Structures are given as structure tokens and as C-alpha cells.
Predict the 3D structure of the following.
Amino acid sequence: MQTQQQQASKEVLHIPQVAFDWYDEYAHGDITRRTFLARLGTLGIAGLTLGAMTAALTPNYALAHQVDFTDPDIKGTYVKFDSPMGHGEGRGYLVVPTGVDEMNEAPTVLVAHENRGLNPYIEDVARRLAKAGFIAFAPDALYPLGGYPGNDDDGRAMQKTLDRGKIEQDFIAAAKMLKNHTFSNGKLGMVGFCFGGYLVNKLAVDLGADLNAGVPFYGTPASEGFENISAPLAIQFAELDKRVNATWPEYQAVLDKLGKSYTAHIYPQTNHGFHNDSTGRYDEAAAELAWSRTVEFFKAELA
């Protein structure tokens, strides 16, 4: 019997690229859900209903559950932190490997979510990092509004109402709290996806030498301050992600001019969000390769 994920993968094979492009526009607020569904309805693909296409393209977080929250190798809790320059107080999901304590310290990794709050996929990413030996912390930008609401549409609308500068300050405060955690070895990495990828690039500027390694997944760069970047970057791109990729040539030129340390990986025939295993954009081979590179990069830079 086929699993739900296997069935969804077969459906994805029949969805044309333009549908993924429309989903990207919808996910980033460029078009409404009504427009997105109306466009999908014009495709008329034989053997694939509008409902099936929508289900394949939008998140099903049951598919993104790789590490159970009761896994004996980790311990996850929700903790609050002070953010005087942001929203005053923040909250996030902290996951610590079993056996890590004051005598057995570990490197830390800040996890930055997309433009919709701390959803189950991002929480699972934090657990994956803890399984790999890192103290992981994933803040929820929506905490000032009550936290991630349980669905992405509402989460996206909520995040749009928040001041981006204050969100950035919340993540800076979270980064400093995490780096100074009692069990930290003093090294801080950061990984983020989509808006979170932008946050990695932005905090590489704002934190300077306090950030020791950064991995932005399909994130746009900061607008200025590149000379402050100290952390080596492992930058992950999806080949079909026209919106984000258009920003790379200029960003690359600046990094080269300033002599910054970076590697850039472009994954062939992948869409924005290819690491997110809850949607039809997920590309298993590319996601696993990108993730293995991420973990090895952190192990090398944060030891």
C-alpha cells in the first residue's frame, strides 16, 4: 500500500512548473489564495483535480515529521527570552541533545522560519539539528500576536502585520541568548528558510563576529552593511527560484569584493522551498544533500 507521501509525489510529477511558480507568488503574498486557486483551475490537467493539485502544493505537516518530540536522544521545551529592542519578549522552541550539560557543552544553532511563524516543519528541523548534536532554538516571530495559529494562511497574514525591524531584533536577542546558553560551547550557527534565509543574511551583518556560521536556504540578502559579515556562509539555492536567484549576482559580487568566505550551491530542477518535506515542492534527493552539507558545515565551523 502506498503512503500518502508516495501518492503525493506521483501527483507532483504531473503538475506543470507554472503551478509551482503561482504557489510561490501566493506563498509570498503577491497574489491572493482566490487568484491562486483560480489560476490552478485553468490548467485542466487530465486525471488531476483542482483539489489534488492544491493538496500537493500546500503544506501537510504530517509529512514533515522526521524526528519525534519524544525521541530519547533529545529534549524539547518552549522558553521565553527578553527582547528589549524588539517586541519586549520572545518565545521559541529549544531542543537540547540528551547528555549535554555544563560539563558536556555543545555548539548552538538558531533556526529561522519562513514568513508564517513557527510551524511544525521548522520545529522538526530544530529536532533534526539536536539529533545531530547541536543545541537548536527556533523562535516564533508571531509570539507577540499569540504565536503560530495552526495554519499557514493565518500565520502569513499575521506576520505581515508585524514590523520587520522588530522581528529582526527579536531574532538578534534570541541569537545572543542561545550563544550564551549554560550548555553552549560559545559557538553560534544559524540556518533559515525563505524569510528565515533572509534573516540569516541579515544577522550575518548585524551580529558580525558573534555569528560563527550561516546557512541561508533560498533567502534574499540584506540591503547594506556587508562589510560587517564575519561568519562563513553556505548558501543554498533552488535552480527554478527566479525571484531569489535574481538577487544573487549582485550579492555574490559584493561578497567577492569584500573577500568574504562563502560557498554557494544551486540544486538543479528544484523549486523555492525544496527542503520543506510537507509540500509538493519537496525534492528528496536535493533536500538530503543540502541538509547533509548543512550539518557537516556546522560541525566543521562550530566545533
